[in-house]
Amino acid sequence: MTVTNDPTRQTVPSGPLVEEDREHHRFRVRRSTMTSPEIFALEIERVFGHSWLYVGHESEVREPGDYVRRPVGGRPVFMVRSSKTGEVNVFHNSCTHRGAVVCRKDSGNAKVFQCFYHAWSFNTDGELVGVPDRDAYGDGLDFSMLGLRPVARVQSYRGFVFASFDPDIVDLVDYLAGATEYLDLVVDAAGDAEIIRGTNEYAIDANWKLLVENSIDGYHAAPTHDTYFKYLVALGTDLSTGVDGVGRSLGNGHAVIEYRAPWGRPVAKWEPMFGEEAREEIARLRADLVERFGGERARRMSESNRNLFIYPNLIVNDIMAVTVRTFMPVTPDRMTVTAWELARRDELPQLRQRRLDSFLTFLGPGGFATPDDIEALESCQQGFRSGGVEWNDISRGMARDPHAADEEQMRAFWRRWNEQMIGAMR
User: Fold this and answer.
1) For residue 157, which of 88, 215, 81, 256 has the smallest C-alpha distance?
2) The domain at 53-168 falls in which architecture?
3) Which UniProt keywords apply (predicted)?
């Protein structure tokens, strides 16, 4: 491998980035995948340029003219509900005149988006509807061809809106593969689901792929989040009801860990942390699920936790609350993270409060888990700077049916990542 004097700036090695030896139960990944600027540049083009990427939830743009803007795959885009058709559109956030950003607020409602630079204006379908001093252009310019550019592909599944910059990518349902089963569980349990207003945004000084691994890693929970488990026990939670669970590859790089919930779930598993007054409410929620979906599916919705990863950068944590989280690489050793909370739209105020409390207690910016995880990932990135060790080992569980504390779900991610990157390096 060729390296500079700084071990964090490794170039692309001549050998493989990922090695798998099924016979000897060994799976390893070169640490240069976490530090190399060249690999970083390649994955922005190959991974983020040729995957379906989560944009937002339809509930965020419920009314005609509602919009949200955010970076997707490192590119500024915005999602808006058409005032004409009611469809959800996703546009490149760039004026077709001279390139300035057109949508300049994070969210709101508008009939027209006007570029502040030269005041070209576009409607919610992206059509160019206003050009100051249009006569100065004469008859040679076809203004009908100068509307906002939609992202190449936009599709929605159960309210989750995805976009892809690759016009030839497979349809979204085919891409999601086995992940649809787990999205269905989340949406069916919530009913008319919505993203609650507000976001949790932060940055981590670590490679984005470390958060992929961390988000579906059951192995780190007990040592890293020991304080949270002690807190639950102090409140009277019986952690012995939790079991190891399973880890699954869902196809196309997606993966999940599913396990019996050792703590309460607002839908619909009571625990002492919720208070005695919540017992009856949660029992009613459980009965409603049984009536709608049958006992076995209701049990799974109520008593099982799921950490669902949708390749390459979406996590749906269906645990003590339902969190939707994306992360975007900024440099090889820095990422930005955005998290939202998903809930039933007509949820009773006391249930909504309980859900938000559960979310903030564990996954909030000052919660028990998020600061621990940030510290762990940044520690890994710092360790990479030491050099001397070429590979990370991700072999746990290869010799048995994968448990939630094993690493098959991470291997699923790395196999797909490697497929895309091999194509970039040929």
Assistant:
1) 88
2) 3-layer Sandwich (2.102)
3) 2Fe-2S, Dioxygenase, Iron, Iron-sulfur, Metal-binding, NAD, Oxidoreductase
Two tokens at 69?
């803007």
| Residues 77-111: tens digit of each pLDDT | 999 999 999 999 999 999 999 999 999 999 999 99
pTM of the full structure: 0.91
Q: Torsions phi, psi of 16, nearest 5? A: -65, 150
- Token pair 């007054």 is found at 277
Tokens of 120: 């070209």
Domain boundaries defined on the chain: 53-168, 178-425
More confident residue, 12 or 47: 47
pLDDT band at 5 (very low <50, low <70, confident <90, very high): very low
In the chain, the N- to C-terminal Cα span, in Å, equals 17
Reduced to 3 states, what is the DSSP secondary structure of residue 25? Answer: coil
pLDDT at 191 exceeding the cut of 60: yes
Helix axes 279-293, 295-303, angle to 10 degrees: 140
CATH value of 178-425 in 2.60.40.740, 3.30.1050.10, 1.20.1050.10, 3.90.380.10: 3.90.380.10
Tokens of 230: 């002690």
Q: Under a CB-based contact definition with an 8 Å cutoff, are residues 413 and 309 in contact?
A: yes
Contact 340, 323 (CB under 8 A): yes
